[in-house]
Amino acid sequence: MAEGERQPPPESSEETPPATQNFIIPKKEIHTVPDMGKWKRSQAYADYIGFILTLNEGVKGKKLSLEYTASEEAENLVATVVPTHLAAAVPEVAVYLRESVGNSTRIDYGTGHEAAFAAFLCCLCKIGVLRVDDQIAIVFKVFNRYLEVMRKLQKTYRMEPAGSQGVWGLDDFQFLPFIWGSSQLIDHPYLEPRHFVDEKAVNENHKDYMFLECILFITEMKTGPFAEHSNQLWNISAVPSWSKVNQGLIRMYKAECLEKFPVIQHFKFGSLLPIHPVTSS
């Protein structure tokens, strides 16, 4: 994604919604392939991708292992889920959290479930529980902990990849940590994209960098030559810079996840992430 294409974070992410806002239970709105046009024009799409790109910018050049603090209100969230004065929002926001851990019937998990968790975090920002100032903690503390939980579930229950493209996909389960993880590595003094297929480089640096943690997990879960079981990632290792990797992954995420009907047909829309067309400010 070119520099000029970056979108600002949704203005509502720093504001508490008015007391008169009517929260609603999110529901599916994308029932057929032609409905995808509604999604791409929607306020939900604009707010969601704006949130993803804001976090992408926030973690640029930062290490996972450093200490980052969240706001006091966000700390309260951990203890109480949602503050009492926002209780009306709980049923709406909780839908995205429930959708984020995979399907209990099919025992599968994929980028649509991951998107639900990102939507959950986006909603918490929109109601003011989390703030844009918390962006680094949102990725490194909250989202990274979510990844740890999902990896444990994937290992324990051998969850099926939901909508996997096999060897031609980026990863069986995740996408966002590759975007944010590549942003972390932009302008790194010595780690280049070619190094993530180097076992020694991964083992020495994975605790600091989300991208390398993803690579380590893949190598733990799959056998055989990396170029065979993860061909797309192998190809990415030939890209000359992390900034180009990051830009390419953002384009790929839009094309392969956010613009694919099998993924978006399960996304749900409410008052915080509405299906109505984006409104110009």
TrEMBL record:
It catalyses: [protein]-peptidylproline (omega=180) = [protein]-peptidylproline (omega=0). It is an enzyme of class 5 (isomerase). GO terms for molecular function: ATP binding; metal ion binding; peptidyl-prolyl cis-trans isomerase activity; protein tyrosine phosphatase activator activity. GO terms for cellular component: cytoplasm; nucleus; protein phosphatase type 2A complex. GO terms for biological process: mitotic spindle organization. Its main location: cytoplasm. Keywords: Acetylation, ATP-binding, Cytoplasm, Isomerase, Magnesium, Metal-binding, Nucleotide-binding, Nucleus, Rotamase. The keyword ATP-binding applies. Pfam families: PTPA. Its EC number is 5.2.1.8. InterPro entries: Phstyr_phstse_ac, PTPA_C_lid, PTPA_sf. It is found in: Cytoplasm; Nucleus. Residues 1-20 are annotated as: Disordered. Transmembrane segments: none annotated. PPIases accelerate the folding of proteins. It catalyzes the cis-trans isomerization of proline imidic peptide bonds in oligopeptides. Acts as a regulatory subunit for serine/threonine-protein phosphatase 2A (PP2A). Modulates PP2A activity or substrate specificity, probably by inducing a conformational change in the catalytic subunit, a proposed direct target of the PPIase. Can reactivate inactive phosphatase PP2A-phosphatase methylesterase complexes (PP2A(i)) in presence of ATP and Mg(2+). Belongs to the PTPA-type PPIase family. This is Serine/threonine-protein phosphatase 2A activator. It comes from Octodon degus. The lineage of its organism: Eukaryota, Metazoa, Chordata, Craniata, Vertebrata.
